[in-house]
UniProtKB/TrEMBL annotation:
SUPFAM superfamilies: Ribokinase-like (SSF53613). Activated by a monovalent cation that binds near, but not in, the active site. The most likely occupant of the site in vivo is potassium. Ion binding induces a conformational change that may alter substrate affinity. The gene is rbsK. Keywords: ATP-binding, Carbohydrate metabolism, Cytoplasm, Kinase, Magnesium, Metal-binding, Nucleotide-binding, Potassium, Transferase. This is Ribokinase. Pfam families: PfkB (PF00294). Its main location: cytoplasm. ATP binds at residues 182, 218-223, 249-250. It is an enzyme of class 2 (transferase). K(+) binds at residues 244, 246, 280, 283, 285, 289.
Amino acid sequence: KIAVVGSINMDLVFKIPRMPLPGETLMGHSFHLVHGGKGANQAVAAARMGAAVSLVACVGDDANGQSCLHALQKDEINASHVRVIPDCATGVAGILLDDEGQNSIVLATGANALLDLADIDCADSTIAQAKLLLCQLETPLASVLHAMASAKQAKLKVVLNPAPAQKLSDQILAQVDYLVVNETEAALLSGLAVCDLATAQLAAAVLQQRGAGVVIVTLGAIGIWVAAPDQAYSLPAFKVEVVDTTAAGDTFVGSFAVAIAEGMDLCAACMFAQSAAALAVTKLGAQTSIPYRQAVEQQLQN
Ligand code: ADP
């Protein structure tokens, strides 16, 4: 069982030839409405890898919120701790995706900003029954910390994906068993520039010194740097054709959490997660692109 505390967003995806200039009106290729939000994406990834997943989150009482809840149901995610807030908008992300696969994103956080300590308290027994807690930072930090504290008390493993990047104290990092960061997050948290395996190694060492248990730095098509207390190594990414990198990181984190909860060793868990993330890169959108376990295992065997 995995408990996820995090965000739910509706993604409005515009496929466009190139990024617009300020003041410019640009004709796009197409528009897609896709279920997203880091919390929901990671919950969906975990569910598609076969875990029983509960999501603690907030949506507004609008059509987007209903649609997002319906999507969670289809993935058999327990949404009994998703609070529907009256007179509030569900989180929305406007995503511009150009011909080169680059994306620019604007976010209106809506109901996600209202996830509070009481939401965590309501879900306390659900969290306590899980094996692992998975969090990101698209919901208020105080709520995330509250969830991490109750997870620690119930002896759960804690996986934190500190995205969007935000500075965190050593005390917070010390609560984290597995810290999964991309280049931006690694740089902000370590104070070092991160662009390749060598710099990722330096940043990971800083984050371990600051208290994090295992640190994983994801480096897109390069792969990952893994720093555990007793060993550190790099693993290459799978080679795939890039369509849209949205949710690559979320797929990695959700799949990694399942592998760790199942007791896979660290290296195997990382390759499992990378296999899932690489498949996500080959499809458009957030939750639409997250693969199922069978495909992930098949790619690992090839
Ligand atoms: P984020 O989306 O958070 O910035 P990354 O871009 O680092 O995260 O991607 C997370 C993981 O997804 C990578 O470590 C890698 O395993 C996989 N991935 C991302 N981009 C590619 C790619 N172009 N080819 C293969 N795997 C990729």
